Amino acid sequence: MFDREWEWEWSELTAFATGEGVGPRLGVVSGRRRQGKSFLLQALADATDGFHHAAVEASAAESLRLLGEAVARCTGAASLPRPATWDEALEVLFDLAAERPGPGHSPVGR
């Protein structure tokens, strides 16, 4: 972690992840490379029993395959989801969200 305002950033992230609301939400986290963004997001997923998948620089087909593998690991599914398009990938993620209780139902704290 480099030059982070841990308490403020953590409270903002947990408020977003555990806030009341219906349906999926999208949050965008941006900033310079190697500053701790992925660390914070992984910690948030761990604390809320959420799903975290970090994209890597790869072709669309490879990225979709890796996402399917990550969803299968998360759910313990015997068969891999195989989204062929990003629209299908979003459906897989929405299905995952529907099958699992949302982060708003998990205690958060560190």
Structural class: mainly alpha
DSSP strand count: 0
Shape: globular
The low-pLDDT segments are 104-110
Radius of gyration from the alpha-carbon trace, in angstroms: 15 Å
What percent strand?
under 5%
How do the SSEs run, as a string of H and E? HHHH
* Biggest pleated-sheet summary: none
Helicity, in percent? 40-55%
Roughly what is the average pLDDT, rounded to an integer? 80
Count of DSSP-assigned helices: 4
- C-alpha end-to-end distance: 16 Å
Task: Report on the architecture of this protein.
The radius of gyration is 15 Å and the shape is globular. It has helices spanning 6-18, 37-48, 60-75, 86-99. The two termini are 16 Å apart. Mean pLDDT is 80; it is low at 104-110. The longest helix is centred in the middle third of the chain and has 16 residues, at 60-75. The protein is built from 4 helices and no strands. Helix 1 (6-18) packs across helix 2 and helix 3 (60-75) runs parallel beside helix 4 (86-99). It has 110 residues and is mainly α.
